[in-house]
Design a protein that fits this description.
CATH class: Mainly Alpha
Radius of gyration: 19 Å
CATH architecture: Up-down Bundle
Bound molecules: zinc ion
Structural class: mainly alpha
Number of strands: 3
Number of domains: 1
Helix content: 55-70%
Largest sheet: 3 strands, antiparallel
Strand content: 5-15%
Distance between the termini: 59 Å
CATH topology: Methane Monooxygenase Hydroxylase, Chain G, domain 1
Shape: globular
Number of helices: 6
Order of helices and strands: HEEHHHHEH
Length: 168
């Protein structure tokens, strides 16, 4: 019986690690989808027009929401939208209330503009939004569609949020 070629042995050795990495990666991409969906749905409910939402797979996995008119940092809605993204991905990673990366940072930055009390209110407003069942349904649906579509026009985002309110 011929000996196993070196390359075959090498592939066998790296395969388990590659599979493990693929699983981690897809979890990361899913988390990103919920993060962006959290921003987008919060923006929708606060009346901020979205141009598009995108999600990139691959090495530079990430995503973003582009608004028709970006809000200035002095508009508290901008902060609610930012925090909603952090909370949405935290919720999909584990039970809400677990440590939310980015939240402390946002709280400090918002406190510099609005004062500590208003900054805490901003966080609570975002938490209230993300925890509302109908808003979570919209985030969940949008994240799932985004995973497949990768880029969604603002009009489509609106349609998906509306659709999440109808039982199918
Ligand atoms: Zn974000």
């Amino acid at each position: 019986m011929p000996a196993e070629p070196d390359w075959q042995r090498e592939i066998k050795q790296v395969l388990p690690a590659a599979k493990r990495r693929a699983r981690c990666f897809s979890t990361y991409t899913q988390t990103t989808a919920y993060h962006e969906a959290g921003h987008a749905v919060a923006a929708f409910f606060l009346g901020i027009e979205i141009d598009h939402v995108s999600l990139y797979h691959g090495r530079d996995s990430g995503g973003r929401v582009v608004y028709q008119k970006p809000l200035p940092p002095t508009d508290s809605r901008e902060w609610v939208v930012s925090v909603a993204g952090d909370l949405a991905d935290a919720r999909i990673r584990g039970p809400i209330g677990v440590e939310v990366p980015g939240l402390e940072h946002h709280l400090q930055e918002a406190a510099e503009i609005f004062g500590a009390e208003s900054a805490a209110e901003i966080i609570e407003t975002a938490r209230g939004l993300v925890e509302l069942p109908e808003i979570w349904r919209a985030i969940d649906l949008l994240a799932k569609v985004l995973l497949y579509a990768r880029k969604l026009d603002g009009k489509v985002v609106k349609a998906i949020v509306m659709a999440s309110h109808t039982k199918v």
